[in-house]
TrEMBL record:
Residues 179-354 form the EngA-type G domain. Keywords: GTP-binding, Nucleotide-binding, Repeat, Ribosome biogenesis. One of its GO terms (biological process) is ribosome biogenesis. GO terms for molecular function: GTP binding. Gene3D superfamilies: 3.30.300.20, P-loop containing nucleotide triphosphate hydrolases. HAMAP family: GTPase_Der. Belongs to the TRAFAC class TrmE-Era-EngA-EngB-Septin-like GTPase superfamily. EngA (Der) GTPase family. This is GTPase Der. GTP 2 binds at residues 185-192, 232-236, 297-300. The keyword Transport does not apply. GTP 1 binds at residues 8-15, 55-59, 116-119. Associates with the 50S ribosomal subunit. The gene is der.
Amino acid sequence: RPLIAVVGRPNVGKSTLFNRLVRKRRAITDPTPGVTRDSIEHEWILDPYALTIVDTGGFKVEGDSLDEQVKEKSVSYLKRADLILLLMDVTDVTGEDETFIEYLRPYSDKLLLVVNKVDNRERENGVWNYLSYGLGEPIAISAAHGLGIDLLEEAVLRFLGEAQLLKSREAEAEDSFSLRLALLGKPNTGKSTLANRLIGRDVSIVSDLPGTTRDVVESSFSYRGMNCTILDTAGIRRKKKVGENIEYYSVNRALSAIEEAHVVLLMIDAQEGLSEQDKKITSQIIKRGRSVVMVLNKWDLLQEVPNMIQAISDRVRFLFPVLSFAPLVPISAKTGEGVDKLLSTVYAVRKQMSKRVDTSRFNDKLKEWGEHYQPARGKRGHFKVLYGTQVGVEPVRFLLFVNRKKGFPPGYISYLTNKIRKELGFPSVPVIIDLKERR
Ligand code: GDP
């Protein structure tokens, strides 16, 4: 979990801020063993993150250098921290502060300057002076009076959002893309036939790894240099016994496959269409932020009728609006027809799931969309989206700061979800939007 370090010379209000952030969230105080008395880690719940915040109380300036004894521990926090909050006092800047600033400069790309004790208008004007340290725009707060805490939290959220995007970008480059597929659907829809066909594509890579504690066997194949794993092929490939149809839809089994998958292939017998069970499973898939590709199998058995796919897809979207973004691909697992198209669709979906949008681009778009359509007015006045940022991939997740959260029109969220899908490149994956209130 992300680590936030709070630093500052004595008396700038570190503990007051600390207590306000942590206590407000009713976090459990948990002095971690092995950490000196001066540095205490706490859990700080800042939705959607659970953070560790540490008061590196150990910094002291002796003359014009840092006290060697406490330095080491605190320095290790600075190095490990995902974000450093440097606290200063608006009423008083000392030489000690300036030593700190110079000391922290190497970490300036992960540092937010927080100016405390801004209790009134007059003091607010003093905050501008702190721009001159070249550590970015200072965040003005009063820890004692609880002013500006929301702004501080937002700044932290924004910083972490950006940092997380960067991190996953690096991770992706390293792990050069993998894909975990779950095949779900009613018995006899052709799951084993498809699994065998996919695995058969590249026999040399087939690897049946017997699960140790789980009753799961995974099989792999490769596609466009991407390592693809089909989860739970044991459950799919074994010979069926009488009565096993019921067992297949064993909720636990399906859920654990969904849990582990990037993309779920929902196998549908084209002659039968979607069932109630499919609908239930699908809502679980979407709840978990996984992507779905609907596979209409046994296409070879259907008489070709013009526009049939369009008709079927319209019907599915009408009956299962929650699936409106899921691609629908007709195949014949038996003849292999359409399987290439299925793979390229899955590949595109996988790409979208890990795609990131720059915060500035997203906010330009939010502004543009807001010019076309504003949220409906509520009983207590206007609703407004102030700005937003993408806070996650796999699943794709955006955080929007709004003026009021309670009663925020769901219709507007749907509008934005559709816009994000269409204009920012997420047409076929779930997009989750969280709201956070900024007063
Ligand atoms: P599972 O229960 O979902 O794993 O389904 P199976 O893969 O065992 O397939 C059930 C039956 O449907 C088998 O007899 C398959 O040969 C048949 N089948 C699977 N895919 C196709 C297909 O694309 N076309 C046709 N005509 N039959 C298929």
